[in-house]
Amino acid sequence: MNSNLYYQLSRNYNKNNLNLLPWIIIGSVIIGYIVRSLFDFSLGWKMLFFIPIIAYSEEILFRGLLQKISKKNYGKYMSIIGVALLYAVFSLNFGLYPALAIFIVNLLISFLYDYTENIYLTITMNCIIHFFFFV
Question: Rounded to an integer, what distance in angstroms lies between the CA atom of residue 5 and that of residue 93?
Answer without folding.
Answer: 31
